[in-house]
């Protein structure tokens, strides 16, 4: 997956042993050994310390430490010459659009469209938490609120008062919230003004918002589409260089029927569907811990199976998700170590791993010796 030429400075016998150990370590999201995934780009021995360079094509920095620990233990056990491992980990994400005919957005490597067939299923909630989870895993992220008839992202990110300015008379600044950039039609228009727009006008304005915002070197731009599978969604998917789409649904039959339309819409325009998120999937009674399925069960899984796309995750119906949103601090930042944040981060890693790319962003150095 990495385009970097590997720099291996070990003698042949040690090199083959080390590569075998590294390839026996499966990346949980790419489902490949580290060597087969093209992630090993540097190997050198200094005394009994192995210097290891790893390149990730998707953000997962919360897993780095455990990965390095597991690799270190395996290498130390298998190779007498190695007593410790010093790992340097890069994140490289490359520019990619599913439709080669659409030029890339300046400063944006990949665009993830988040869609739902039906309104109110939690599409914006998912978009915001997905964007924040990608950022928490080490990526530079922006979010575009394209939900023209109900722009809720300014409120969800606690930046309702932001008003864009245009330093060059051509582009608009974005809001910064919890470490991500955000742009919304809600920063510019009142709800009443946007609600009366007809499809073509709305779609045109949204394409303008995508292209004329001052994005700052984004790895991912998450686009929160309006609900439905009509003209706006179609125009956006044909005019914006989308890399992949995520479909949000609840387990209810009516939502599922609409979600299926969403999957087929993207498949028709050759945009890969990265998977389905089932929101409000279950309810855990805070008193007795009983798990209930108020909207039915396994609907998202059925859609995923029918269309051959991954099931990305299931979020509970949980009052804290709504309360955190209403306060402008989504669960991923309000309770970063909580169970909800963990589900969103897993979802983010699955989405990003599904997109597969490269370009150096961050460098993290972790050194673990065998006496830890
Ligand atoms: N898993 C959840 N548990 C509890 N409340 C949730 C959950 N997901 C979303 N909500 C709440 O449900 C409401 C609708 O969510 P959201 O605005 O994300 O839906 P949407 O699909 O984007 O809606 P629209 O179609 O209007 O754009 C919000 O008040 C949100 O806080």
Automatic annotation (TrEMBL):
It comes from Shewanella avicenniae. The keyword Transport does not apply. The gene is apbC. InterPro entries: FSCA_dom_sf, MIP18-like, Mrp-like_CS, Mrp/NBP35_ATP-bd, NUBPL-like, P-loop_NTPase, YlxH/NBP35. Keywords: ATP-binding, Hydrolase, Iron, Iron-sulfur, Metal-binding, Nucleotide-binding. Pfam families: FeS_assembly_P (PF01883), ParA (PF10609). In the C-terminal section; belongs to the Mrp/NBP35 ATP-binding proteins family. Belongs to the Mrp/NBP35 ATP-binding proteins family. Binds and transfers iron-sulfur (Fe-S) clusters to target apoproteins. Can hydrolyze ATP. This is Iron-sulfur cluster carrier protein. ATP binds at residues 117-124. Residues 17-87 form the MIP18 family-like domain. Homodimer.
